[in-house]
């Protein structure tokens, strides 16, 4: 039995909360597909008084879609776009995403994907990574690649932080060993991948005064670092083999945790708490139990 659909008013209330936290104009519309990608709301649904529920995930896989159906949620907030490339036809027999879309619509479940709006926003995922790395002990935190739009009024005083990636200068020198410990502890990871220049015999011997970081993939963003920005430490989800090798040859330390592992804890903790606060506990916010990075350390 399908659940009753969320009313348009109820859906808009949740979407407005997301847009307040992460203004949609900050998303990189040159290539990203953000916003309400599936709208299954109705004019006067949910009349049985059912408390609205939202499922949070990084990736809307078929397993996450089935979880949403089983839990009878009204809305999935999936950080990554569910519909990324244009669909010219629906072929569920050969495309699992198409089948998931059909299943979600048949079960009155809407889908919203904020993605790069979260990346670029103040107190979004990149600022979260700054927080866990520095614990507030920094003298400079600015975006590496700026957004191409004017900030909303409340962001004007901190506009240098608006954009993709972060370049951070620390107040006090630290070590690669300490920052890697903070990454693993905060992101709940047992392992990460580290590249250390050959002349260093231990992570504790590599000293750090500045950091470049980017949630997801840092490949494009790190290319935007200015000549004045020369970070000692690079942290992101993924880079290519040759990008890592080039940084190692330049004497840099690189830490990779896999793409979505750099994003997931923000979605599960910070986003959940921020939404719950804005929605006055009138909506159930559920963290997906099925959402995980497709690559696992073994």
Automatic annotation (TrEMBL):
<feature type="binding site">
    <location>
        <position position="80"/>
    </location>
    <ligand>
        <name>a divalent metal cation</name>
    </ligand>
</feature>
<dbReference type="GO" id="GO:0046872">
    <property type="term" value="F:metal ion binding"/>
</dbReference>
<feature type="binding site">
    <location>
        <position position="263"/>
    </location>
    <ligand>
        <name>a divalent metal cation</name>
    </ligand>
</feature>
<comment type="similarity">
    <text>Belongs to the GTP cyclohydrolase I type 2/NIF3 family.</text>
</comment>
<feature type="binding site">
    <location>
        <position position="259"/>
    </location>
    <ligand>
        <name>a divalent metal cation</name>
    </ligand>
</feature>
<dbReference type="Pfam" id="PF01784">
    <property type="entry name" value="DUF34_NIF3"/>
</dbReference>
<feature type="binding site">
    <location>
        <position position="119"/>
    </location>
    <ligand>
        <name>a divalent metal cation</name>
    </ligand>
</feature>
<dbReference type="InterPro" id="IPR036069">
    <property type="entry name" value="DUF34/NIF3_sf"/>
</dbReference>
<keyword id="KW-0479">Metal-binding</keyword>
<protein>
    <recommendedName>
        <fullName>YbgI/family dinuclear metal center protein</fullName>
    </recommendedName>
</protein>
<dbReference type="InterPro" id="IPR002678">
    <property type="entry name" value="DUF34/NIF3"/>
</dbReference>
<dbReference type="GO" id="GO:0005739">
    <property type="term" value="C:mitochondrion"/>
</dbReference>
